């Protein structure tokens, strides 16, 4: 067996937005990474908080991008939410759906009745991301929750990654109702809750899964909660400054620039990095301050700095002592421009 990072795991669970694609464009190297895992006979699952597509639609989208996928490999927060609603409600119960048609279809297929008005007397509200969600359906949802309906959120991602930068996600839409109702949802189904991760591990009979994500507050925190190893890739929402400041429950096992890190030695990505120096970089600590010197691979510098910031050095107390280090820290937003 080869000794690259992925070879130690019997299942790789991919997040989608920010890991495999951005909106509708594949991220460079994603298709190649998936095919290499398949060539190594490593099972693959795709777990996404995005509730705007069904599993078959997600698989079709991936295949259309050149990333191989089967519907059975895809777990969505829409499907998981509908399954949970079906467990808790009687067959045929009316559920007010805030979100895309995919979420309505999942609710319908779960044996429940999707509705869109308080007059339909919904016993639950399920809220997921949908690009057409507007004031009218949010108002109906607020009225239904006030009337006693149980409020389910497929996820609370504040943003969605895109080639143009972060866009409002379902968490931003949930915040509208949170403000109007002055309360939290009764149930949040998707990441960072551990359900999607544990379901994937159960489906594939995995004893040692690896979860890959781009968000510390959902993908990585969810993996930590599910007691799984995780890899943060820097192709989506969370960046180096976020990782340096990450609390314990949002710290990944590994970090890599992109999915090619799966096929490099695990010790090249493990967090935190070795103390002192590595790969042309050197971190010197003086009490509650630290300095970065040298040049080289930015991920190596990031791992070295995690070793000190995760041990108490504030991110604001990091300085640079070489031009390359200064340029890198400025690009991360760690130093003032």
Automatic annotation (TrEMBL):
Keyword Cell inner membrane: no
Entry-linked Pfam families: GNAT_like (PF18407), Hydrolase_6 (PF13344), Hydrolase_like (PF13242)
Record keywords, A-Z: Hydrolase
NCBIfam families: HAD-SF-IIA
Record domain GCN5-related N-acetyltransferase-like: where: 279-333
Name under which the protein is recorded: HAD-IIA family hydrolase
Organism: Actinoplanes sandaracinus
GO molecular function, one term: hydrolase activity
Highest taxon in the source lineage: Bacteria
Keyword Hydrolase found: yes
Gene3D superfamilies, per database record: HAD superfamily/HAD-like (3.40.50.1000)
InterPro entries registered for this protein in UniProt: GNAT-like (IPR041065), HAD-like_sf (IPR036412), HAD-SF_hydro_IIA (IPR006357), HAD_sf (IPR023214)
Cited SUPFAM superfamilies: HAD-like (SSF56784)
